[in-house]
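I'll show a typical protein example:
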Amino acid sequence: MAMAVTPPPALRLRPSPTHGAFPLFPPRPSPSLVARAHGSIPMPLRQRLITLNQYLPASAVPRPRSPPLFATSSDSVHPVGKGSNYREWDSLTSRFAGAANIPFLLLQLPQIILNARNLLSGNNAALFAVPWLGMLTGLLGNLSLVSYFVEKKETEAVIVQTLGVVSTYVVIAQLTMAQAMPLPQFVATTVVVALGLVVNFLNYFGWVDGAIWNLWEDFITIGGLAVLPQVMWSTFVPFVPSSILPGVISFTLAAATVTLARTGKLSEKATKLVGSLSGWTATLLFMWMPIAQMWTNYLNPDNIRGLSSFTMLLSMMGNGLMIPRALFIRDLMWFTGSTWASFLQGWGNLFCMYSLNTISREFFFGTTIGLLLWTGMALWRDSVAYGYNNPLRSIKELVFGP
């Protein structure tokens, strides 16, 4: 009579965690099974783990993650052998980046209040000091970053970027009321903002189909690549002829590139490059904001009183607080956007206001010294954390890699 044979306990496989009805990882063999396969020879712990990984498929072996655009201390992996200076600076830079939420939340509030006062007093001309093209680029950049953080489920960052979209939209609405922004462009902006916020909200809670989300991602990539050259061209009208040709050309090229990437016609490296374009486009849109603002200041110096110095100071502070973290995790895109915005969007416009005697000398030089000291401190502390003698080595690693 046949007898049921139960495998010895050492040969049983441990159950793996599951996600829904499908296993998250394939079952792992127990250490005793691996030891038996190698003749039960004792091994050090590190060698045992290496041997276990040989029995796992490549998809089941954990891989180090690339640092996200806006990382926290939990996202970074401490290299082996780094000391207390490294860990301390890692924690501090993460706190600095979190503290940047405060000035960003208040960024547009002084400008909104100033615009409201000018509208109520009938001084619509003062609102022409705020370039609607520059505000539009910032709004589109915020909207692109909302999608980026929604996909990563970074709740705090999603809230900050969403408030940035809403506050910038309020300023754009005020500009439209003062006839400083054309009505057709405002209507188109309203449709895009409403659609973007709804899609991102639904995706955050998992209520949107993957195909719809992919379509939205393609839209913001193509839209950003099309809007950026057009905004750059339109900023210098009437010194250049008014034309939509830059936007049409860039839209055509962007649509063709995204289509090729989605259909698998591009190489893996090119596809990854296309996937990163939305983030870089958002950064470039932010970087164009101070250029548009300073160009407007140059053309209409009398309207500079319509700018709020407190808004520029908040912009400088918020972006400046993120510089140390971006440098620490060697994120070139984040560092470029934060440094550019801090020195041009913030300090650059304060310089224009000081040159036209709209802010005091003490206020301007105080903010200048503070920004230089903060930047120098970030470079110095980063070099100390990594054990370098030259702070410029951190910049070299940021640009060219270790």
The longest strand covers residues 18-19.
